[in-house]
Amino acid sequence: MNSDIVKLLISEASKARTMAYAQYSNYMVGAALVVPSGRIYTGCNVENASYGLTMCAERTAIFKAVSEGQRHIDAIAIVGGPLKETRTGFKDESDYAYPCGACRQVLAEFLPDKGDIDVIVDKNLEDYKILKLSELLPYTFKLDE
User: Fold this and answer.
1) Packed helices 101-109 and 57-67: angle between N→C axes, nearest 10 degrees
2) Per-residue pLDDT tens for 54-76?
3) Distances (CA, A) of 106 to 73, 92, 117, 118, 137
4) How far apart are CA 140 and CA 133, in angstroms?
5) 90, 84, 92, 86: which is closest to 25 by C-alpha?
6) Which of 78, 95, 109, 122 lies 20 to 30 Å (CA to CA) from residue 18?
C-alpha cells in the first residue's frame, strides 16, 4: 500500500478520533477507510450508557460509506486509546487499536474484487502496522451462494 495513502488515512482517523463520544470508557477511536474511487469516509466511536448500543468507529465509517452507495472497501486505518482533553489540548495515549470481532465481520462483508482489505493500526504516523483482514479474521461467516 502506498505510504502517502497510509499516512493520509492515519491522519483522517486521528481527526475523527477527536469527535468520539467515549464518556464511559474514555477509549476514543477514529477510523478512516478508502473505497476504490479514492474517496475517504471517517467515523468515531459513540458510546451509550447501555453498552450494547455503543457503535465502534470502524462500523460508523463503514455504514457512512454504504449509506452513500459504496459496496467495497480497499483499506481502513484505526487510531485509538485513551485521549484525554486537558486545558491545553488533548493528551494522547494511543496504542494499536485492532478492530473488534463484529467490525472484522462487517469489514468482510465489503471486500473489494481483489478479495482482501488492508487494516492499518497505528500508534502514530511513524509507528503503524498493516495487516490483511484475512489475518485478523481467517474464517469469515458467509452464506452459501
Assistant:
1) 20
2) 999 999 999 999 999 999 999 99
3) 11, 28, 12, 14, 11
4) 10
5) 84
6) 109
Helix (H, G, I), strand (E, B) or coil at 75: strand
C-alpha cell at 70: 459504496
Backbone phi and psi for residue 73, each to the nearest 5 degrees, phi listed first = -120, 135
12, 47, 58, 135: the active-site residue: 58
Q: Is 58 in the active site?
A: yes
Rounded Cα–Cα distance for residues 10 and 63 (Å): 19
Number of H helices, E strands in the chain: 4, 6
Helices (H), 3-140: 3-17, 57-67, 101-109, 133-136
